Amino acid sequence: MGYNQSIQKAKALAKLVSIYRDSYKQLYEEAVYTSKYKLFGLRSSGLDRGFYSPSLIDDIVIGNAHRGRVVKKVTNPQSISHVFYFDSGNRLSAINMVDTSKEVILQRDESELGIVFRVEGLFQITQCLFQHNQITRYERVRVFEENSDHITEYLCESYFYKDNRLSSCLMEHFLSSNPDLSVYQEYLYLFEHSPDGSESRYQIETHNELGERVEGHFDNQQYLVKNNSRLLHL
Asked: What is the tally of structural domains in the chain?
């Protein structure tokens, strides 16, 4: 893809900040109030939405990232990292990321939009796209002080499938929308799966700011997917 296309996608997503700036708190409160049940996430770390992170690769490629687990009841409240609220259709509608932030999730036909906020205000928009019940894109944009023109981070993961298994993922990431300050990263993850689905391995290609393949630190290396990764349970 390259940096120029990534920045355009980031700006388009960041425009939603101004649309929801005055309504996100009410939307969150309504989602919690109308929820039919809730679950508790325990000991998740390093992942947006914890156990329900939409990313198919974050718990693979991020060191010490854990989805944790979910339970209906807890005996030790200090172990709670997330509170998940679900609507009448069993869809995730709101999340309380304990002591950090909150998110309301707006469900659509083949997409969902997440609005994340802290005490200081709205700071992240998350979007997921789906086709045939499979996620095809997960992206998030973070802004400074609810200013859609001041992008502090953008991440986009595009997923491609073969025989209903993930065959590759293109990951685009940059910090700051200012070209003089931004650090752009682009990697292509290529997956192979055993016939019985019990094991998956992947390789990584490094791309430059133009989206072209270049030599990288991960070349000619193969990695084994963790047994507890969401990827093995698609």
From this structure: 1
